[in-house]
């Protein structure tokens, strides 16, 4: 009898030790997930034992124990028991349910002791701006930052310095286009001033915040003054030429009057001399001299008329040249205005394209943090999608937020751009 009692005590001690060991393992697992609710894809290790008081031994239910996974329906499929709902329950609740189901099905006097331990948590999922999106195993004390590191960190450019090259090229082009655009705006202001006949160029609104705006306006003002001076000098030259020609016409008109009087005198003298010659009072030599004098005067009158006609033609040509000069001035300004506006439109499209390329380069690479053109801090936004039995909900988190098994972490780069 004493020998039997010693064996029973040893069995009790063994059972208690086993229970304590199981409890220690279970508590170590549950310590990291206090109140943790099981879910689909959680892997469990189940052990079941029953104390036999009749002979003081422990009966192991090896047919029930083993490794199990919570299925898509949230249930465990156990021998003898069948489907057992596990999703949304704790390991303690599942263990209690297993013991009760076995006692009821086999009409056991004592409640079997079940141990349910989590051998592997269901994974977490990473999506968005990470190098390798996908599912990753969960471990206790897993934070958002640790999960992102498992996924290779924030997404980088596809090949080495591709982002930096593309961004710098686009930024350089944008700077060149900006500079050209500012110059064209200053030129446009100068052309409008020339067309309106203004003496000064008004500062365009688009240049008020530009660092070298005054230099651009000063340069265009100098060009406008030079062009205006040359234009006015050409007009003055034509005016002076017409004045000289008009004076020549007036002088020739006076000469014509003088020559006409001389011609009248010479003609009268010739007629008188002709009568005297016919009467034999004088010889023919004097008549011939008067005839030559009259012919010379008539020739001079013809030359004066010719010169007068040429001078008047030159005046007409000068008038036409002045008209052409004024028309060319207006037409040239109109054409330059049209060409400048077309260049501005083209540059606007090129500038928009360069900025879009910069934006695309920034949004496609985490390296954008080093190239934020606004000089403001670019941020990374973390969002966790979690289902706690009442439907999936999105929660904004930070890098140090602790995760739960089954969480979906969305990583989005938020870049503040103009």
From TrEMBL:
Provide the protein name.
Answer: Exopolysaccharide production protein ExoF
Q: Which organism is it from?
A: Neorhizobium alkalisoli
- Show the GO MF annotations: polysaccharide transmembrane transporter activity
Polysaccharide export protein N-terminal domain location: 31-118
* Ribosomal protein found in the keyword field: no
Show where the AprE-like long alpha-helical hairpin domain sits. Answer: 171-355
Q: Which UniProt keywords apply?
A: Signal
Q: Which domain of life is it from?
A: Bacteria
């Amino acid at each position: 009898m004493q020998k039997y009692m010693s064996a029973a005590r040893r069995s009790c001690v063994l059972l208690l030790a086993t229970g304590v060991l199981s409890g220690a393992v279970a508590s170590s697992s549950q310590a990291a997930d206090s109140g943790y609710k099981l879910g689909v894809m959680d892997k469990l290790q189940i052990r079941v034992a029953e104390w036999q008081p009749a002979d003081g031994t422990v009966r192991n239910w090896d047919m029930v124990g083993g490794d199990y996974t919570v299925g898509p329906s949230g249930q465990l499929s156990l021998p003898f028991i069948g489907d057992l709902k596990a999703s949304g329950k704790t390991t303690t609740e599942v263990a209690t349910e297993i013991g009760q189901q076995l006692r009821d099905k086999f009409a056991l006097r004592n409640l079997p002791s079940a141990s349910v331990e989590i051998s592997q948590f269901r994974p977490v999922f990473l999506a968005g701006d990470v190098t390798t999106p996908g599912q990753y195993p969960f471990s206790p004390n897993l934070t958002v930052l640790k999960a992102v590191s498992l996924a290779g960190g924030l997404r980088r450019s596809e090949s080495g310095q591709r982002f930096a090259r593309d961004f710098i090229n686009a930024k350089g082009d944008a700077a060149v286009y900006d500079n050209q655009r500012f110059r064209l705006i200053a030129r446009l202001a100068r052309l409008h001033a020339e067309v309106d006949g203004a003496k000064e160029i008004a500062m365009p609104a688009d240049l008020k915040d530009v660092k070298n705006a005054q230099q651009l306006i000063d340069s265009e003002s100098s060009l406008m003054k030079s062009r205006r001076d040359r234009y006015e000098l050409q007009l003055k030259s034509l005016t002076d030429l017409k004045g000289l020609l008009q004076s020549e016409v007036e002088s020739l008109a006076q000469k014509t009057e003088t020559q006409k009087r001389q011609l009248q005198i010479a003609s009268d003298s010739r007629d008188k001399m002709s009568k005297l010659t016919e009467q034999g009072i004088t010889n023919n030599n004097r008549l011939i001299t008067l005839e030559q004098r009259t012919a010379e005067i008539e020739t001079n009158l013809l030359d004066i008329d010719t010169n007068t006609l040429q001078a008047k033609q030159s005046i007409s040509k000068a008038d036409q040249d002045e008209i052409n000069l004024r028309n060319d001035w207006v037409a040239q300004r109109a054409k330059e205005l049209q060409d400048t506006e077309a260049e501005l439109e083209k540059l606007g499209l090129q500038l928009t394209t360069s900025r879009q390329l910069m934006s695309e380069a920034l949004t496609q690479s985490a390296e954008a943090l080093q190239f934020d053109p606004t000089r403001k801090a670019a941020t990374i936004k973390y969002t966790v999608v979690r289902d706690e039995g009442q439907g999936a909900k999105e929660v904004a988190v930070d890098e140090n937020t602790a995760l739960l098994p089954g969480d979906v972490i969305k990583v989005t780069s938020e870049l503040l751009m103009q």
